[in-house]
Write a structure and sequence with these properties.
This protein is α/β, with parallel strands linked by helices. Helix content is 26%, strand content 15%. The chain is built from four helices and twelve strands, in the order αααββββββββββββα. The N and C termini lie far apart (69 Å).
Length: 177
């Protein structure tokens, strides 16, 4: 009964955080035998697909996590490129992208909060104790103990005579020549 309960819990109720990270860590352990390695790789791949995540685990590139991150929203939509280095005690929200630009990936310090939908690109360095706000786009170095937020939204008011043009399907299908 205990095995069935655990299976149902992992399958229908929630995500098994410890199993996922133990499997990821086994991929980088040179003592892992081939059978366990392929089972762990299959589990990590399946879990990534289930949550629409793409967290690189290229063994040749080395470990990209110094410690297990805090994922309160599971893996939902998280994308982390190979080569990115994530420090200890990092909180990564859903829909976060940590990606490469010009062949380089970011290095993120310890105790960093990354808000929902944030995007971090390029060979930049994010310091320790940094807070990155929701939907912020970061492509420059951020010093220790800093906070990154979006600019104030702009509201563009059109004159009352302004008419929006919406092309019909026939117009969209025509050749622009």
């Amino acid at each position: 009964m205990g095995k069935l309960k655990n299976w149902l819990k992992a399958r229908y109720i929630g995500w098994d955080y410890d199993k996922y990270w133990s499997s990821r860590e086994a991929l980088f352990d040179p003592k892992t035998n081939k059978i366990k390695y392929f089972m762990c790789k299959s589990y990590v791949s399946k879990t990534n697909r289930r949550y629409a995540a793409d967290i690189a685990y290229d063994v040749r590139g080395g470990k990209n996590f110094k410690g297990r991150p805090i994922l309160r929203h599971k893996l939902n939509g998280i994308v982390i490129a190979a080569g990115a280095i994530i420090g200890k005690k990092c909180y990564i929200s859903h829909q976060v992208t940590i990606g490469r630009s010009k062949g380089e990936a970011p290095v993120i310090g310890d105790n960093v909060y990354i808000g929902p939908g944030a995007k971090i690109f390029g060979g930049i360095h994010i310091g320790n104790n940094v807070r990155i706000g929701a939907n912020a786009v970061v492509f420059e170095d951020v010093p220790d103990n800093a906070t990154v937020v979006l600019q104030k939204p702009r509201v563009i008011v059109k004159s009352s005579e302004y008419k929006y043009y919406v092309a019909s399907k026939d117009e969209r299908d025509q050749d622009p020549k």
